[in-house]
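Notebook entry, structure prediction.
Reason for the run: the old model in the group folder had no record of what sequence produced it. Starting over properly, with the input documented here first.
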Amino acid sequence: MANKKINMLEGSLWDKIIVFALPLAFTGMLQQLYNAADVAVLGRFVSDLAVAAVGNNVPVIGLIISFCMGLALGVNVVVARALGMKNDRKANEAVRTSFLTAVVFGVIALIIGQCFASSAMDWLDVPAEVRDHALIYLRVYLLGMPFIAVYNFLAAVFRSQGDTQTPLWALLIASLFNIVGNLFAVLVLDWGIAGVALATALANLLSAVILFVRLTHLDGPLKLNVSELLKVDAASLKSIVRIGLPAGVQGAVYSLSNLVIQSAINSLGPAAMAGSVAAFTIEINVYCFINAFALAATTFVSQNYGARNLERCYRVMWVTLGLNMFMTILMTGIVLLFSRELLGIFTNSEEVIALGMIRILWVVLPQPLSVVMDTLSGCMRGYGYSMPPAMVTLVVVCSVRLIWVYTAFPLVPTYETLMMVYPLSWVITMLGLITLYVRLVRRISKRRQFITDEI
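New structure, fully documented this time:
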């Protein structure tokens, strides 16, 4: 593992951030490949109704997973700061606590999800012809929720020391399994949408097992000792929740507001639903790079903040912002250039492709706004300053999108009207986060005071 660690405390930043972020971006793309594989197989070998059913569940599943990944970010910050402080004991306690927290969260999410799966179909006003497919997919997919939680929490442990390659390889193996499983379930077993969801759940199990086994065979403070799995460190748990919960809320807010938008999309019919999920499957891969560099900012700031090197923390923000912007503009250009061909992977319907093109125009093109938002939020979390950016996002995103859906959309009830709300909410949120970050940096620089000393 030594060759996979990154020295975040010394030397140049740009090359190390790239080495950290790119495998993480590819990991995010592979996670999205789970959904893309489901959509592609169902679109080609089952029906557009099945594709619409998967698309209907994207915001529901995203709500749960976003919250999970937010909590996992707390793991990343706590372990990285302990490593920066050279406190191996606290790092190991945090690793043990993280695993048990992931298992508990995953089981709770599974139970709650199953209890409210049917109600979610009602809240989203899912059309009758899609409802049964959507409900089956959601119930089977949720069986893999404990494994999704374990994978994300353990991946955060690896990231804390700069190792983004091990989670990538684990997910690559699981993704290949998912693709083969999808084809086998549909073409051989003829299990349709239920078989596709089951293959995805089993792939999530595989990725979690790979990381668990790898972590139990590590040397050093991050080693997960099986004999001590039930030992929870209260201080580590408190810090993980304090930092991760607001980040989870921030991620969940996007998904929650998307539930409202999804309900409005559903009112436009199955074609709009299918076009939306096809475009989302493409656009989310651009966001994977944005999120990867934001997580790099969080990890690098966390370690350097633990080492009490504030000047390097400030430089991390600017270097990460520049690299993030460059990669996002590059990815956006590629998507815009080949958008029709990419949409054609998921459907043969010209109507669905046309609707997907509208979403790409309004959601992918303004992605540089997300670069600023996510980079600043990532840096603030690295300082342990997690609640304020979450609250700004909560208030602004929810209010803007709710107001738009219930005022502008009824006046002009078109698919394009709905898509306009994304860049609008991003602009306002970005301005709020810039203000918040400037105030935080001034506070730290003026007082030379560390806002959060405990781990």
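Summary: DSSP finds 16 helices and no strands in the chain.
The old model has been moved to the deprecated folder.
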